[in-house]
Write a sequence for this structure.
């Protein structure tokens, strides 16, 4: 047994004026060199516990020892923070200087480390995270993944024995997530740093040495990832999820396929299915009905009169004529049809957010044309206020969009600016709050800043819906939410779309856009890389990977099985479709079990 580096005994913490403990009698031991993942819904106590580990907070009761230090006085807290570093969700909240290497040196300077030693440690830390070439760069010009690497370097330079990552990949694109996770894993394996990894991504948690699931401040589940995820019903009841491969395995077992227990990865599933086929002495027969999801032909292209948004050769350059000049968009052309649910995907810094701010006139660029229901947003005499009544925009960070004293005032802000009568404003406020699944009587008079992250997003959407737009644009609406919160948010957006609203959604989740969007636009370095239905886009899985994206796990499995000789349709990516195709191949069923 390795020596314990973190020991919590009946640890409790309660925020001032809170009715219950945020962390409630937690008992946990973390071994030196362990990679521990912590899961839980928003508000389950994960981040509070992380702050206790870093001595940003002190326990209300109980005993917490970190690297042999029990934080009681301010001096103790200082020593804890030297041995336990912390990387937060949003790197912008952690980066404090205007030059990368200066930011990396910030903590060391506060520790009073000698200048020569600071220089050596900064160089080592930046090299370790692959950011040496950006030492003189401005953090504001970096991508989200690069900023997170800088934040890790700043912690790493302090030479901690423990690093706590508090949802540090929540806002990153797929390749950014992979890179930061791989960095944490390498630091753990090669340098022996103990890692506490807090996440909402089940595929990350599945790669940890051990899982802890928190719920309402207590530890609800604990064990190896396979042991925890095998308790599927319990995990789902706690508002979480299980890896897609495990869901598929359950569906296949219900369809009569004998599979080993606790399959978690694409590789494990592919090997198990090939072995199952060999056990059945199967030879795969081509089934014409499975040859391709495109057999019915591509969707007919509608007349252009059905387009509600048209973008033609749009280019946007930030800070032109300066050393920081950056081309965010380069001759982008696309069209969104009336009643469509369109998705915009791309790596961090690909131009997604810049593009959507042009769609309601927040940004106006030349060259290029943006038309909304035939109105040219680039003309000087265009009534942009009228355009923004038609096109509602919900930003990525809801706290940036909320500003009033109460929820009701915040939601009413737009309708009031429309000059509506007080009775109509009040009616719209109550209607919009209900539309997003909240009770006006419970939240209307609350400060929006008292709400949870998911509730803030709902209020931000309500403020836009109160304007009754016919087009709704959402920039990463589910980023940072737990699995249950994400499902609730996407279900809400789907219901808004079903009511007749055209929806454009920016997302980093391939599973989400695959399940909800009719059509996808893929941006890469400010240019249009691909467009089409999810099936048409996901078929380019290797090229998507090359530009920093990914495809759903089931799409990866379908490709692996196709390479192994299974007759799997091109372009399938949903669990139910992949399950049906596998059952047909194994002759274990017609797919009805899925």
């Amino acid at each position: 047994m390795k020596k314990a580096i973190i020991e919590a005994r009946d640890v409790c913490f309660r925020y001032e004026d809170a009715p219950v403990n945020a962390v409630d009698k937690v008992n946990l031991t973390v071994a030196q060199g362990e990679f521990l993942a912590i899961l839980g819904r928003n508000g389950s106590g994960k981040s509070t516990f992380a702050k206790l580990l870093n001595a940003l907070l002190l326990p209300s009761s109980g005993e917490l020892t970190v690297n042999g230090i029990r934080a009681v006085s301010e001096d103790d807290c200082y020593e804890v923070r030297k041995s336990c570093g912390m990387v937060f969700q949003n790197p912008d909240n952690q980066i404090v200087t205007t030059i990368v290497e200066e930011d990396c040196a910030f903590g060391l300077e506060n520790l009073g480390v000698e200048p020569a030693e600071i220089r050596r440690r900064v160089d080592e830390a930046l090299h370790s995270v692959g950011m040496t070439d950006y030492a003189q760069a401005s953090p504001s010009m970096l991508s989200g993944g690069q900023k997170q690497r800088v934040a890790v370097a700043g912690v790493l330079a302090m030479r901690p024995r423990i690093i706590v990552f508090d949802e540090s990949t929540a806002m990153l694109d797929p390749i950014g997530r992979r890179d930061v996770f791989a960095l944490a894993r390498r630091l753990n394996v090669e340098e022996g740093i103990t890692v506490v990894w807090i996440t909402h991504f089940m595929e990350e948690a599945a790669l940890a040495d051990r899982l802890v699931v928190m719920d309402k401040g207590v530890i609800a589940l604990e064990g190896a990832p396979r042991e925890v995820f095998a308790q599927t019903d319990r995990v789902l009841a706690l508002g979480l999820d299980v890896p897609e491969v495990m869901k598929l395995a359950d569906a296949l077992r219900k369809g009569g396929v004998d599979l080993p227990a606790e399959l978690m990865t694409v590789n494990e599933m592919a090997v198990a299915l090939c072995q199952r086929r060999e056990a059945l002495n199967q030879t795969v027969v081509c089934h014409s009905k499975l040859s391709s999801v495109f057999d019915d032909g591509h969707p007919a292209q509608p007349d252009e009169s059905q387009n509600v948004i048209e973008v033609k050769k749009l280019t946007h350059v930030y800070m032109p004529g300066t050393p920081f000049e950056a081309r965010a968009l380069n001759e982008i052309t696309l069209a969104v049809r009336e009643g469509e649910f369109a998705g915009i995907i791309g790596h961090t810094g690909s131009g997604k957010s810049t593009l959507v701010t042009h769609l309601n006139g927040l940004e106006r660029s030349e060259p290029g044309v943006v038309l909304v229901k035939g109105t040219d947003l680039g003309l000087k005499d265009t009534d942009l206020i009228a355009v923004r009544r038609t096109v509602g925009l919900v930003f990525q960070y809801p706290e940036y969009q909320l500003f009033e004293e109460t929820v009701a005032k915040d939601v009413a802000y737009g309708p009031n600016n429309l000059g509506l009568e007080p009775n109509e404003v009040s009616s719209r406020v109550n209607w919009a709050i209900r539309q997003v699944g909240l009770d006006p009587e419970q939240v209307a008079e609350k400060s929006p800043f008292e709400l949870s992250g998911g509730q803030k997003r709902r209020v931000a959407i309500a403020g836009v819906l109160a304007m009754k737009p016919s087009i709704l644009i959402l920039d990463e609406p589910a980023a940072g939410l737990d699995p249950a919160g994400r499902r609730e948010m996407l279900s809400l957006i789907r219901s808004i779309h079903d009511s007749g609203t055209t929806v454009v959604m920016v997302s980093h989740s391939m599973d989400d856009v695959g399940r909800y969007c009719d059509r996808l636009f893929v941006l890469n370095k400010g240019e249009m890389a691909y467009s089409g239905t999810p099936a048409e886009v996901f078929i380019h899985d290797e090229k998507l990977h090359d530009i920093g994206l990914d495809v759903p796990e089931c799409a990866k499995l379908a490709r692996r099985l196709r390479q192994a000789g299974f007759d799997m349709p091109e372009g399938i990516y949903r669990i139910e479709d992949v399950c049906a195709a596998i059952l047909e191949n194994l002759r274990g069923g017609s797919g009805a079990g899925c």
